[in-house]
Amino acid sequence: ADEIYTLSGGHLLLAQRASEYLKTHGPGGLLSAADSDEFRRTLLTERVYSLGTLGRDATAMLQVASFLGLTFRQDEILCAYGGQDGATRRLLRRCRDERVLEYERSSYHFVHDLLRQYFSEAGGGDPVAIHEQLALCLRTLQPGDYQTRCVNALRAEQTTEAGTFAVQAALQAHRDGAED
Fold first, then answer.
1. Which residues face 103 on adjacent strands?
2. Residues 161, 131: contact at Cβ < 8 Å?
3. In whole angstroms, what is the distance from residue 160 CA to residue 165 CA?
4. Per-residue pLDDT of the chain (180 residues; tens, 9 = 90+)
5. What does the alpha-carbon distance between residue 111 and residue 62 come to, in Å, rounded to a whole number?
6. pTM for the complete prediction?
7. Which contacts of 165-171 are long-range, i.e. CB under 8 A and separated by 24 or more positions?
8. What DSSP state is assigned to residue 92?
């Protein structure tokens, strides 16, 4: 039990998966997992692959979501993922059912940052292209959040836009400080 807790990082979903892994592969497979991060990735990868096409689609969507952060709004993922809204909503529901995401007041959040980290690397999408799409969404959904738009523009390798947003964010901070 202590080994499962250590390898799962205390995350209940991963502890359950570790227990299932132990039943399937025996104690040798569990004990040979020298690196707990690698073991967690193995558990998550096996679970995602077991979902077939749904798992691949969910992984691609969750990679985009991971770039939005630990918490993200439904309108953000619907815009940024680029799939049909109905299909994206079904994927979000399935991710809730699988206890990868939780939903509260029109926002989703990863149940643990380990999952967000995993999906940020697992989707296979081009991070720059994802951030380019996010830039378009942020322009519509958060036009006055210059700091977020600046950081995203840097990650999208849009340095000119990032510089413009940095100046706008500084001016906004100055205005906000002057109003206090």
1. 108
2. no
3. 9
4. 665 565 555 666 667 777 776 777 666 665 555 455 666 677 777 777 777 778 888 889 999 999 999 999 999 999 999 888 999 999 999 899 888 899 998 899 998 888 898 899 887 889 999 999 999 999 999 999 999 999 999 999 999 999 999 999 999 999 988 654
5. 12
6. 0.76
7. none
8. H
